[in-house]
From TrEMBL:
PANTHER family: IRON-UTILIZATION PERIPLASMIC PROTEIN, THIAMINE-BINDING PERIPLASMIC PROTEIN-RELATED. SUPFAM superfamilies: Periplasmic binding protein-like II. InterPro entries: Ferric-bd, SBP. It comes from Aminobacter aganoensis. Fe cation binds at Y214, Y215. One of its GO terms (molecular function) is metal ion binding. This is Iron(III) transport system substrate-binding protein. One of its GO terms (cellular component) is outer membrane-bounded periplasmic space.
């Protein structure tokens, strides 16, 4: 009753209602299965109710841009840096201290968004049908005849699209277009996402897949004999790209205080430890113990290509290229 009276008084006086002050609306490209426990923990710690809309990162990014100033979203939590860069103009500036705790490899110096976890692109393969000398040295090798019909990919996946964006920025559109066409000609098989690629390898449909590093650990945690392994390409190859998931506060939001509470929570030691232990991703700040299955970050930095994740915002050009070659 008291809460209702306060809300009514706020409306009469033209003030923000009690309910609005104690909620935060999140558009999440991150899957519900992983983050729902985090959302509950945030609510328990802050008393703020989170209203979450789940969906594909690209889908929600498009929705946010279409809604513009009328969007109900306070926070956008993206699966990949490409969408974050594409939405920079829709984000409010973050205080510099938000990014100060973030490791250099994952930091957004423009302070338009903040990384919440790191991940790498990897090659997964069948441990039953693939021998060591059959593993490709570079991602370009996958267009060779020996891999015909044996490789899976997920063109609609945000991580793959961020990879294509980085590929374009480092090698040029024509080179990437030629690679995509060569992969298609080599009968690369399209799957919905990273997990379905792993399933397809285990089921014998394909022998290789291009995914983010953290998916396979979920399978091997349930079955130590699961017949899929993962590896990287030669040092510096674009197939070893380091990516981030991250979040920004929507400029149109009139609830930025609670949005900031959620951002701060995602960077807290408890949330970062949860993300790496349950999600098999890299924590983005020091003082967190990474999951034991993860390669040391120093080793990752040695083999990853030198690509600034802050430059991956040209998502529309990537989508246009994927449409042009018939993958979307």
């Amino acid at each position: 009753m008291k809460k209702t009276l306060l809300a009514g008084l706020g409306l009469v006086l033209g003030l923000t209602s009690f309910a609005a002050a104690e909620t935060v609306t999140i558009y999440s490209g991150r899957g519900e299965a992983l983050i729902a426990p985090l959302i509950k923990q945030f609510e328990a710690e802050t008393g703020v109710t989170a209203e979450v809309r789940y969906g594909g990162t690209s889908e929600l990014a498009t929705l946010l841009l279409e809604e513009g100033a009328k969007s109900p979203a306070d926070v956008f939590w993206a699966q990949d840096a490409g969408a974050l860069g594409a939405l920079s103009s829709a984000f409010a500036d973050l205080p510099a201290e938000v990014n100060e705790t973030v490791l250099d490899a994952f930091r957004n110096d423009a302070n338009k968004w903040v990384a919440t976890s790191g991940r790498t692109r990897v090659l997964v393969y069948s441990t039953e049908r693939v021998k060591d000398d059959d593993l490709p040295k570079n991602i370009a090798d996958l267009t060779d005849e020996k891999y015909k019909g044996r490789v899976a990919w997920a063109p609609t996946n945000g991580g793959f699209q961020a990879f294509v964006t980085a590929f374009r920025l480092t090698k040029g559109d024509e080179t990437v277009k030629a690679w995509l066409k060569a992969m298609i000609a080599n009968e690369a098989k399209v799957y919905r996402n990273n997990g379905t690629q792993i399933d397809a390898i285990a089921n014998g449909e394909v022998d290789f897949g291009l995914i983010n590093n953290y998916y396979l650990g979920r399978y091997t945690a349930r079955d130590a004999e699961f017949p899929v392994g993962q590896t990287t390409f030669a040092a510096g190859d674009i197939g070893n790209l380091v990516l981030v998931a991250g979040a920004g506060i929507v400029e149109a939001s009139d609830n930025k205080e609670n949005a900031r509470k959620f951002i701060d929570f995602l960077l807290s030691p408890a949330a970062q430890q949860f993300i790496t232990l349950q999600g098999y991703e890299y924590p983005v700040r020091t003082g967190i113990i990474p999951h034991a299955t993860l390669e040391p970050l120093e080793a990752v930095n040695e083999i990853s290509p030198k690509v600034d994740t802050n430059t991956l915002g040209d998502l529309e050009a990537t989508l246009n290229l994927l449409r042009e070659v018939g993958l979307l």
